[in-house]
Design a protein that fits this description.
The structure is a homodimer of 217-residue chains. By secondary structure, chain A is an alpha/beta fold. Chain A is built from nine helices and seven strands, in the order αβαβαβαββααβααβα. The first copy, chain A, has a single domain, classed as Rossmann fold (3-Layer(aba) Sandwich). In chain A, α1 runs parallel beside α4. At the A-B interface, α1 and α5 of A face α1 and α5 of B.
Chain lengths: 217, 217
Amino acid sequence: MHIIDVNSQILQENTRLAEENKKLFNKYGLHVTNFMSAPGAGKTTLLEETIKKISGNYKISVIEGDLQTSIDSDRIKALNIPSYQITTGTVCHLDARMVHNALHNFHLEGNDLLFIENVGNLVCPADFELGENLKVMVFSVVEGAEKPKKYPVMFHKVDVVILNKIDLIPYSGVSLEELINNVREVNPEAKIFPVSCKTGEGIDDWISWFSQNIKGK
Amino acid sequence: MHIIDVNSQILQENTRLAEENKKLFNKYGLHVTNFMSAPGAGKTTLLEETIKKISGNYKISVIEGDLQTSIDSDRIKALNIPSYQITTGTVCHLDARMVHNALHNFHLEGNDLLFIENVGNLVCPADFELGENLKVMVFSVVEGAEKPKKYPVMFHKVDVVILNKIDLIPYSGVSLEELINNVREVNPEAKIFPVSCKTGEGIDDWISWFSQNIKGK
């Protein structure tokens, strides 16, 4: 049994399904963002803060991915935003088929934005295209400045790196400058936004960039 | 193609190889601990602190797992402890074969303890037995109190849960009590040690339990 061949077949089939998703998203004029991170980096909180700022201007839907529970989906629904929770059981990432199946739970017509929150994992989600327009990763600065070197695949693949929890920098001993340099080394093109979802610092810069990025949609 | 069947074959083959590893460990009287966590929870720092406290009493070797770099292995070598770095590329976990191959880099004769630091990932490493005696997970309290509910597989499988970075609790808004209750809900049997590798708080409790646990070896 050739594990690599099997994985490669799985990834090829996923890429094909992601292309199908992309066609569907285009048909409905839907701009789709895939949010990825390690567990606990603050994806859901970032989504909440983003939704609060822009939900007056756009019609938004959210797909949540977790191994278990509907905790995240419930948080989004509390903002009066349609949200569907995918529970993956033991699977460590969302794939294009899961997203496709989840779409049946939404009325896509008239929607502007779809936010997909991936399973918390700094490795595997990066390998699975979902048909999205934008890949955003959220990284908690507390995880350490050297992580872009140790987990280069996701840092390399994303369009945006949001460095969250900068309010904890004074207590964590992590150098934001060193972290940003390490991100740049792996991905010189990425937009980088240091933010604190807790204090609100930096959120407006992210929102401003994101709003401009979807302007043409 | 049946993805689940393929995965099940991979896991069965891994379990067989893990049994082989276990026989080898037993032959050399080696006590083996598998340290798992999300990225940046503090596995390497916990290893460093543990090694400093007990290396006078035991002969220790370390296997490090990361996608890229030998940063962690270099940190262990700086303590004059033999260490071998497995770089997995894009693979999100260590498996029994990787560990078996890494063993060729050590003189197992006369060793007491082998510490294996897994790839930073709260999902997949839990599925891959390595032939170890003890499964320890390190969880950074900053990742949030609800995580045991959302990532139950690893929390359920381990013998020990080390709740690290408790020095950040006053700044993070996370409730240690709620976190411990959530761990207990998923795994009532686990030993739980709240620690701060930064301040040293709680480390002695972990070391004391660990030393007693390997006494009979």
